[in-house]
Write a sequence for this structure.
């Protein structure tokens, strides 16, 4: 019951601080004989990597992942896979002037209150750098899923920055890789570029909403109550730093629907059941329907900003703080590959759980 | 890793179907020597019990809880507490005409696809009756919390029905017990009464948003990454039937805030740190700040309605369905005590985890 | 991490005290669509049931098991299976005179020291009655194994009573059901009958060694390190009341062997690998070889005896105690079906785990 | 439910193969603010390290442990502690000639049968090198225990080599560090030296029995059923490579005792309850009594020997094998610090669990 682990059969335990020698993930329960090379993981880390454009922190990190165990002659062995990422650009001095002050909106104060530890080096374990380990672990999950569910496609993208939501009528999957915000709406991308640039220059930051869609999920993944597929997805997303809300399908908006509107009607196709709509987000009663699995999560704005904020120090003195450091004006951007990685881990976990308990999808329709 | 359990130290496993002989909860990890009598649990079950007014299903259930183990001479022993609730008013015949059809928006089809089981008796395990077991378990957690955190107050209430949100300026805790919707806004209660009555008569249903607030939570509860206090609260709420979205503090709205707006400023009082606002919902970096812990969740409308919907049957034939049965026009009403119960379970779990790992709150301020 | 649960995918949580209203097991993770009727479980409970002959406690218990959930129309649903056994013959008065005294060799004193609870009604949770719940759960595991591994045979038997071991040259599986001691050695049965009768009449008790063999276990069950098949078997057996030692294959005797003697040589047959001997007990590196899986465990003598023993009471006064009650002169007899049940649970758990992670036995020889 | 993890609150997940780049342990749940430096762990690794005398494998490994996370300014932070040990002397070529053959008594064949993986480089995950990670993790547990239970003493020693048991009348704790076998009987040490030398020269190996005693364990640690202190100790010891049997207190010998002999009588002292004997091994009903906690485990002889043995290869051909490599004539010697480490991990886990659920030892006597 480590509080640094998640997953039931495919388990991931992340470790490491933002300014220690290294961080990583201990991944267990992966099926054996899955082809796995560092490059397969590196591609996802590079997507999350900071310093790639002016919209993300200028911290320079290679984020090069090493596979220390669990792979032999290029294939997984079924044993624990240890993934290590060395920290290279630490520059702790950036943080020395806030050594005794608590940054508002940051975990500094609660870590101190709980553990009596003040890791002033960028927040240590609460740093967004922890998500690099998730992305590496997610890369392992993706390779296993590639062999188990070849038609599965997991795609994350930004659907809102600040109060500026995308226009769903502009939705184009092909646009996602074409802009620094991973958004499917080219117009929104242009608009956000100006908006975020102004915020960045003013030393401020802003929140965002990320959507992650999994296409090609078979029906029957999940469980009835506490191990619901959507519960596990919500858990995975809510555990990402700075996430304050999670939605499945209609999400919070489900409150505004009537039963008549919400109940996705079912029809029969030669491929099996099809639905008139997807308010369920691809999950009914905690179990996948075969429709797209759709979740969204809100990322709060970075709390480390250049604006002066009132706070206190360890001695209890009231003071003010400006966090210099190097931070993301919209950390939601880099949350996109993290959300994809978490979705991959949850889906693999449930594929293995289902295979273990049920063996194969048993109910036939038609 | 039972998918029917939750909690790390204070663990709850619920069991039972809506139309079997009984359902209940196996509760383990409760501290010993806590005074516990069935009446202490019954009060919460009575709050959730159906048939109390025209806004909830007319199914008549005593929902009388029996304590089968773990209590000796009126005090917990530290051993598993088995809570059993007999099903009394089953009337399975109500469901016989939908035996082979799948209700849109309901788990019928996914349970069939996963398990090859079609429990037509009201959905079996996916019925909202499962939440009775949560409420009973939550009652145990409340009694343990009463002795560990005497100042703790957990309160759930409805803040939105359909698209009708409460007016926060009308917020009055004393109103919550004064209306059938558990809402703190008396005006909203009056408005919702008419609205829901019309929906009910038309055989339709509607969604809602419930908010659960915990006052008097000490700082230092939670953990840094996957065992975050807010992650565990989100997990607990998302696992409740029909919940499609969960928010902590500013929730999805955090996306619209700037870092300057979001960062709750910190001041010093004679009682310790105080904050200018509570966008964090009482949790920073997964650990409680000492502010009110605030979460919200959206409950979708009941999928069993009197409106005819298109669907298919087990043979794959397209057909239509009207679900007669006895259902809640706004199942969100009865989700209020369920949300409170889940909050109680999560908080007790983290109180015990914190005491186990850290012993006592260690960081001193001032 | 309930300390009253075991198993990873097939999980069993037992609950209940010897003198409460009922006890039972919450069984989760069972595959769906397994035929299950109470009679299938009752046959094993009847084998463990007390009062069947003069060698077991005269307490009269029907030990009738009820299935409260997880079964619909005679088949498992994949949901939690709640098994309840009512206590009928409680006669707490038998214990009233030892209310404040601690029985030497019994858990009375440690439960008091840990929990501050003194359940004088026969030891409450530490009573051997807890094992009835294990036997019921094991019955569920057997039915699932019957469909997954039809050739599997699990057999427990007594190989030593006091210092009287069986003569392996007399070993006859057919004898096991022919005597009250479940021993495969008819001569030992005759000898033990006189021996135990004398002990019983003198108010004394004696220990025993039970062996449990699983024939027809496929190769490939288990895991490399902490989830070793033999580790999980040892855990399961050591968790049975009164067990003080566990052995796999050569067991403690492995210490006396040389590497040359211990290394079971491997030959090839048309059915696959065969071995010259089975010092490994059917497990190498934590994974099954396909040979018989063999374990033994030692059960200490019942601590509740008619002999006067020196002890103390809650006030710390030194005193003496004679435990009247109704006890087993050799509780090891009734441990036989318990050991079988635990073996069944562990094997099913590993069958499901293997299917989940690996899918199917992958390495081919020849 | 990783099968490479153990512990409930203090959790250890080991990773790595004998011939990969590194191996280690991910340790979570450690209390914060415990002083921890690599040297504190290195002392125990040096005790286990191979090549220290002619009685252990001549493989040269520095076994230098690095702390990659969870420690800040010399104190634990309460976050995961990543311990890494680089493999330096791998010499895989030693194994190249057995690439397709399965070593009798070794995990080669079962790993192949389960995973379809043949890591011929010294058995990969099944190598005794995995125990280095346990020793490092145990070092962390010892430092935490030092602050929580200052009077605790954990001592492991060899009590039997082959069929040569120590003479308990020679037992002297001070002798343990004075001989290469960690035995408290100086005469046995002299005898074993000749015996093992002859075995080693003949290319053979032999088994051994290790005893681990914990003095100063408070009463009240453990749990009633599946989380028994002695069950968890048995689990921990049985999970060590090559262990085939585990005993608590009287162990397998408990079978030979009568109830009268076995029931340790209780007296009162000014320090609390004292016992006339310790057949229980310091545990009653799964909970510690305050007496010494005593366990023993049998280590089978190394299966990699210079004696030719019959076996088969991957193609199913019958053949013979001689394992050259560099192996331990009595691997039990190096199991001593491993057993100590496992005892430390189990005790810390239960100290934290007890503090979490119960808070403090509650039952008072006298």
């Amino acid at each position: 019951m480590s509080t640094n682990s998640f997953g039931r059969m495919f388990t991931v335990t992340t470790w490491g601080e933002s300014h220690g020698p290294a961080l990583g993930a201990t991944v267990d329960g992966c099926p054996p004989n899955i082809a796995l090379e560092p490059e397969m993981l590196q591609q996802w880390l590079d997507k999350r990597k900071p310093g790639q454009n002016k919209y993300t922190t200028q911290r320079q990190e290679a984020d090069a992942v090493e596979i220390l165990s669990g792979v032999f002659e290029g294939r997984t062995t079924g044993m624990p896979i240890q993934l290590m990422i060395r920290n290279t650009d630490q520059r702790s001095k950036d943080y020395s002037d806030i050594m005794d002050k608590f940054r508002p909106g940051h975990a500094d104060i609660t870590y101190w209150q709980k553990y009596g530890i003040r890791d002033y080096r960028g927040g240590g374990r609460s740093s967004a750098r922890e998500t690099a380990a998730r992305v590496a672990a997610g890369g392992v999950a993706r390779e296993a899923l590639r062999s188990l569910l070849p038609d599965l496609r997991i795609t994350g993208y930004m659907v809102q920055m600040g109060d500026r939501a995308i226009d769903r009528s502009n939705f184009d999957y092909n646009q996602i890789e074409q802009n620094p915000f991973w958004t499917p709406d080219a117009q929104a991308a242009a608009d956000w570029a100006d908006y975020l640039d102004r915020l960045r220059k003013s030393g401020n930051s802003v929140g965002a909403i990320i959507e992650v869609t999994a296409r090609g999920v078979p029906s029957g993944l999940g469980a009835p109550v506490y191990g619901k597929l959507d519960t596990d997805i919500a858990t995975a997303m809510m555990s990402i730093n700075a996430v304050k809300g999670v939605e499945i399908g209609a999400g919070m908006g489900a409150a505004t629907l009537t039963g008549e509107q919400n109940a996705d009607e079912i029809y029969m196709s030669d491929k099996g059941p099809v639905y008139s709509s997807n308010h369920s987000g691809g999950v009914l009663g905690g179990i996948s329907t075969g429709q797209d699995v759709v979740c969204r999560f809100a990322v709060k704005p970075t709390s480390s900003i250049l604006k002066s904020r009132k706070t206190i120090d360890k001695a209890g003195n009231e003071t003010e703080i400006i966090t210099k450091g190097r931070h993301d004006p919209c950390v939601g951007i880099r949350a996109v590959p993290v959300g994809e990685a978490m979705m991959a881990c949850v889906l693999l976990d449930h594929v293995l759980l289902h295979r273990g308990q049920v063996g194969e999808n048993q109910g036939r329709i038609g």
Remarks:
- Chain A touches chain B through 124 residues (CB under 8 Å).
- Chain A has eight helices and 18 strands.
- The CA atoms of residues 107 and 113 of chain A lie 10 Å apart.
